[in-house]
């Protein structure tokens, strides 16, 4: 490993450095409009592309802290940073071995499941962009864990929380990144969507119509 790469590696393998960096990212955005930062996403993508699973444990620890932030004023910033990191992990795993991908998704799926069951209007857009940028230009065969996870978001929904229902359909639309390359997934989604056309809430029906128009 070249000397200049070793410097980066040693920094990002350091738990304290990562914690301080993430806290800075949270505070930094408080002074400006809170938006998904594409440059930071690309930084994380490069880190995980080059260093792989070596960085995962420390970042998973920080992600868990971010999504469980209790201070209301910080929650939006925390989810924005978490979404940038997760998008970078997903995109950065493009050339990982299949074994490394299996290990990654065993860790990421429980995290994503918790995130998607606790979405709110302030954080939904960040996770939509996370999936959009994270899945961009990837082989769907290597992303089958994530594709199946997103596809199952619309299963067994109730009308208790309309926002969560519409959020799930919103996230399902991010699978359009793969276009025609996941025909069986779209067939399953469309069949399920047709069964939901008589949903009692108009907004949910509109999202379902958007899915059927893909």
Instruction: Give average pLDDT, whole number.
Output: 92
Low-confidence stretches: none
Helix content: 55-70%
Percent of residues in beta strands: under 5%
Number of strands: 0
Order of helices and strands: HHHHHHHHHHH
> What's the Cα radius of gyration?
18 Å
Main sheet attributes: strand count, strand direction, barrel closure: none
* Count of DSSP-assigned helices: 11
Number of domains: 2
Overall geometry: globular
Cα-to-Cα separation, first versus last residue: 46 Å
Structural class: mainly alpha
Kindly describe this structure.
One of its GO terms (biological process) is proteasomal ubiquitin-independent protein catabolic process. Residues 10-166 form the Proteasome activator complex subunit 4-like HEAT repeat-like domain. With 214 residues, this protein is mostly helical. It has two domains: 1-121, no CATH class; 139-214. Helices cover 68% and strands 0% of the residues. It is built from eleven helices and no strands. The chain has helices at residues 3-12, 15-29, 38-51, 56-67, 72-92, 98-116, 124-135, 144-151, 162-172, 183-195, 202-212. It is globular.
Descriptive key words:
214 residues; mainly alpha; 2 domains; 11 helices; 68% helix; globular
Topology, pairings included?
Layout: H1 3-12, H2 15-29, H3 38-51, H4 56-67, H5 72-92, H6 98-116, H7 124-135, H8 144-151, H9 162-172, H10 183-195, H11 202-212
Helix pairs in contact: 2-5, 3-5, 4-5, 4-6, 5-7, 9-11, 10-11
Short recap of the structure:
The protein is built from eleven helices and no strands. With 214 residues, the protein is an all-alpha fold.
């Amino acid at each position: 490993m070249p000397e200049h790469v070793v410097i980066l590696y040693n920094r990002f393998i350091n738990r304290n450095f990562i914690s301080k960096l993430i806290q800075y990212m949270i505070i930094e955005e408080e002074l400006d409009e809170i938006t998904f930062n594409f440059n930071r996403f690309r930084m994380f993508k490069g880190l995980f592309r080059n260093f792989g699973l070596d960085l995962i444990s420390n970042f998973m620890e920080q992600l868990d802290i971010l999504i469980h932030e209790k201070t209301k004023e910080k929650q939006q910033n925390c989810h924005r940073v978490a979404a940038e990191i997760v998008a970078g992990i997903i995109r950065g795993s493009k050339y990982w071995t299949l074994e490394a991908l299996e290990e990654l998704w065993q860790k990421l799926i429980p995290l994503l499941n918790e995130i998607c069951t606790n979405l709110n209007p302030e954080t939904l857009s960040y996770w939509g962009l996370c999936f959009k940028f994270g899945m961009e230009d990837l082989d769907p065969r290597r992303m089958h864990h994530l594709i199946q996870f997103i596809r199952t978001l619309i299963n067994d929904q109730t009308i208790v929380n309309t926002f969560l229902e519409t959020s799930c359909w919103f996230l399902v639309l991010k699978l359009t990144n793969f276009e025609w390359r996941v025909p069986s997934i779209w067939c399953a989604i469309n069949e399920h969507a047709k069964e939901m056309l008589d949903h009692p809430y108009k907004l949910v029906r509109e999202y379902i119509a958007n899915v059927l128009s893909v």
